[in-house]
Amino acid sequence: xxxVKETHPGTDRAPVSQNPRPLNYPPDSSKAIGGEVSVQxxxxxxxxxxGTSLLEAAKKVGVHIPTLCHHPDLKVAxxxxxxxxxxxxxxxxxxxxxxxxxxxxxxxxHTRKVRQARRHIVDLMLSTHxxxxxxxxxxxxxxxxxxxxxxxxxxxxxxxxxxxxxxxDESSYSVVRDMDKCILCRRCVRTCIDLQExxxxxxxxxxxxxxxxxxxxxxxxxxxxxxxxxxxxxxPTGALHANDTSDEVWRAIDDPTKHVVIQTAPSPRAAIGExxxxxxxxxxxxxxxxxxxxxxxxxxxxTNFTAxxxxxxxxxxxxxxxxxxxxxxxxxxxPQFTSCSPGWVKFLEHFYPEYIPNLSSAKSPQQMFGAxxxxxxxxxxxxxxxxxxxxxxxxCSAKKFECNRPEMGSSGFKDVDFGLTTREMAQxxxxxxxxLPTLAxxxxxxxxxxxxxxxxxxxxxGGVMEAALRTVxxxxxxxxxxKLFEHANIVPVRGFEGVRMIELPIPxxxxxxxxxxxxxxxxxxxxxxxxxxVAVAHGTxxxxxxxxxxxxxxxxxxxxxIEFMGCPGGCLGGGGQPIxxxxxxxxxxxxxxxxxxxxxxxxxxxxNPAVLRLYTEFLTDGPCGHKSHELLHTHYTSRGKxxx
Amino acid sequence: xxxxxxxxxxxxxDSIAPGVGLAAALKLSRSDLIATVAAxxxxxxxxxxxxxxxKWNLAAAAKVSxxxxxxxxxxxxxxxPGTFKDRVLxxxxxxxxxxxxxxxxxxxxxxxxxxxxxxxxxYLRPPLDxxxxxxxRAGALGRNIGxxxxxxxxxxxxxxxxxxxxxxxxxxxxxxxxxxxxPRNRPPFPVDTGFRDQPTVVNNVExxxxxxxxxxxxxxxxxxxxxxxxxxxxxxxxxxxxxxxGVYEFPLGLTLRELLEKVGGTNAKAVQVGGASGVxxxxxxxxxxxxxxxxxxxxxxxxxxxxxxxxxxxxxxxxFFREESCGQCTPCREGNHKLLxxxxxxxxxxxxxxYLRELCxxxxxMQLASKCGLGQSSPNAFLSIVEHFPEEVLGRSFAAAGGxx
Lengths: 644, 405
Ligand SMILES: Cc1cc2nc3c(=O)[nH]c(=O)nc-3n(C[C@H](O)[C@H](O)[C@H](O)COP(=O)(O)O)c2cc1C
Ligand code: SF4
Ligand code: SF4
Ligand code: SF4
Ligand code: SF4
Ligand code: FES
Hints:
The structure holds 2 protein chains of 2 kinds.
Chain A: E1 36-41, E2 44-49, H1 54-60, E3 84-87, E4 94-95, E5 105-108, H2 112-128, H3 143-150, E6 175-177, H4 187-195, E7 202-204, E8 211-213, H5 230-234, E9 240-242, H6 246-254, E10 259-264, H7 266-271, H8 285-295, E11 299-302, H9 304-326, E12 336-337, H10 342-351, H11 365-381, E13 388-394, H12 398-402, E14 418-421, H13 422-431, H14 453-456, H15 463-477, H16 481-484, E15 499-505, H17 515-518, E16 531-538, H18 540-551, E17 561-565, H19 583-598, H20 609-617, H21 626-632
Parallel strand pairs in A: 1-5, 10-11, 10-13, 12-17, 13-14, 16-17
Antiparallel strand pairs in A: 1-2, 3-4, 3-5, 6-9, 7-8, 15-16
Helix pairs in contact in A: 9-11, 9-15
Chain B: H1 20-26, H2 30-40, H3 52-61, E1 70-76, H4 85-92, H5 94-108, E2 110-117, H6 125-137, E3 154-159, H7 169-176, E4 200-204, H8 205-217, H9 219-223, E5 233-240, E6 246-251, H10 256-263, E7 270-273, E8 279-282, E9 300-304, H11 310-324, H12 330-347, H13 353-369, H14 373-377, H15 379-388, H16 390-400
Parallel strand pairs in B: 1-2, 1-4, 2-3, 5-9
Antiparallel strand pairs in B: 5-6, 7-8, 7-9
Helix pairs in contact in B: 1-5, 1-8, 2-3, 2-5, 4-5, 5-8, 11-12, 11-15, 12-13, 13-15, 15-16
The complex binds flavin mononucleotide, iron/sulfur cluster (SF4) (4 copies) and FE2/S2 (inorganic) cluster.
Residues 175, 191-192, 196, 198, 200-201, 225-231 of chain A line the site of one iron/sulfur cluster.
């Protein structure tokens, strides 16, 4: 038997994702074969639909089976084997996560064999796991650590490595890979290939030499990683974590010469409570403002301010494109794509660079804020911008990459100095000895104040679209959105369906174009009777479906405007959010976000008084004007699939 | 490359003229065809001994997706150490193997056949391709085979790349699909969800050639040989410390002692039956039978003479598995490494009996909890050597420690 060593890791497997799959993703599980079957688990009988896994069946009767490679968002792997159980009549133990019930079974979940196997498996994992819990990002939130406790590990039965074998990969602004801690559950591989369909990570080598690597073993910064961090959120251990810059933020706070301001995005506020033991879906907006002040930030601003600003810029850009296409009959890049998700933007730059013209040139809210703070805010308050440190609290690991893009310095300085994730901020708050959930609430600082509900819903998939529609509908038709949609809730664009498309006939147009954009679009008459077609896609796998459809000239190519979010669920499911994640957790966060929107006094971006003031005081030539182009708009890089 | 004729006994296959088996099979209806295989009691020759007719019945009943078809895959990966009988079949009796595939295709309704050929057998590819071309010209492959309207079937050859685990049928299918060769979760089984998620029969080379023999000579003739639960004749690849290593045909059910007499290995102290993943049978148990109900084997017989160091034997096998594990599941990936480490400790006299006991329990865990047959069987050799040769395994603890302790 020869042993063929892989010389070109990564080239030997076309990611599964490269096979085209139809648009209805995620697959409809209700199509499962009808009929029920009874299972007895530890003496308890339960009826389940045919095809249910033993793990699910056990859950139904309250029997806990440990898991490690299993994840509710991912395809079944059945590789870690900690979930093994004894099925009567079977010679070997069976992995509960991977065993579909198709006939009546009797199952035992904690026999001698089962306990021995699980303990051995945990011991085997620990034998090659090089890391110390004290100095680990996942201390106290690590599935391996929990298992070791559950199975009473009190010594390393099969030894324990203490010296590092694999150097850390810290090349990426967003994701750090510490493969010494990897237990090869391959959740990251399935996340990157199957869930996100990017295909950066893959197992290479065989047998005991197996490890997770990238194309040609390159550093993460040199491959097509889009920095979405979804792999981090699904890693059970500390093998993957975000590139943490909180030490530098502390240093800035400690420096009396620095004016340190922070902007907080809506999604972290809806989720950070989870890091303090709260159930998912408890918004912490007011408490967080108080905490950030206590921690030492000089000012706390709401990213929603620039979310509203984005809507005005991006909405105007859309009207201009429509005007160019329909009135001037110019060749125009339509549909227009949103640009606020940096994971999605990099995905497009790598895989669909020919569609860069379709991307809105508007910067993301994070970057707009940085630029406004270091210009308008600095001037207004007489602070030298070089003394301002802007921090962004984001649900996202890709935002760390975004703020380091070389073109993001239109203020003359680095617009946003540091992007922190929700997890990192929770850590800083804990370090400051603050117990977030019990704090009194407080508001955001002026001059940006409390933004609108439209900004808040940016955090959920469909949110940018809803916000944009609220504004575009009102401006174009002159009608109140409430006339068309109850409570201005544009329900058809909401939800977690991977891809959604809606059509909005424009019944009438306003007699006058608002002054602020009149120089771009003199009249709305050309939109009369037009049916606006918009779509929403979240998670890059779904984005890919839509892009392939556009490339093939399918229905999505006829859209006018498409919202793309790099992460499943939108920002609330971002790669910087608290771990764990699951569809239920993301739903709970979405609820919190829509509740905050419903409770907002102002719910439409174009009614945000602070935004209007910005246009009267500073960006005096209006949305998409000269100054706004300089400060608030950007350009993109065609990267392609082959880099480095 | 010259191929040495390693046949040591006449083979039943010598007496079967090409075409006879297929012609007999195509006279039967599809259900009678499977019934004939059932009547022969043929069990798979790849090692596991799964009843061939049962496998075919399941695949015949399984549904195909729209625009797809069923597949017959001939497993010619022959990766088990000490096995070389499939190579002889492919070299000298290829027509019988292809006929067997065609019969299987007729039985289950497949239209595509794939011969998955071990990478090292690439030199066999030109003659095999030539044989396929000849069969196509003769109308034994292609459209309306045997003048049966609508019976279309053709065979292509695909090369393996040297991974032992790709002989495992689901890893083989992954490999065919262009993925890493890693076993899948079962169920679903390939008969239901195989290559391209379609019903697929995977059979060993010898199984398929034997099917042809069964149709040529009748199922009764086959069943008359062998034991009650292990019907028929079987090829054995004999190697190691014996006078005449090579490929032998014996009826199943013969004892190891009888086999050793035939091959000139009566002074053996142990025999490894079933290759690296098989078990090590010590001399005192040479009355055990080579049959699925006793010592099951895909045909690999490795004879160990009196001078062999059994710990070195175990070490050799564990080195093999440490590399050949696909690395997917924890018990096999880490377990084989730990067993090998334990052997090295034993060699140096550094392994306590308590730790050895723990390693034996680990072996049990691997057998029970591994995802596929590789990890489930890789500890077998180690466990049986520890069980039957404790003095050789532990002896050197004392020797290495200077006889004290
Ligand atoms: C690790 C491993 C390696 C295997 N290698 C082979 C092989 O090389 N050839 C083979 O025919 N079967 C091999 N098998 C058995 C196959 O999985 C499968 O059972 C067999 O091809 C079925 O054919 P049969 O029913 O005709 O025996 C292997 C199984 C395992 C677990
Ligand atoms: S990954 Fe888990 S077990 Fe490992 S050091 Fe970190 S917290 Fe501890
Ligand atoms: S950050 Fe996203 S793209 Fe990068 S490796 Fe992780 S899942 Fe893949
Ligand atoms: S990096 Fe994390 S998710 Fe990926 S295989 Fe290792 S432990 Fe699992
Ligand atoms: S038992 Fe070994 S070869 Fe089989 S799936 Fe597990 S790691 Fe791979
Ligand atoms: S959780 Fe079932 S095998 Fe890993």
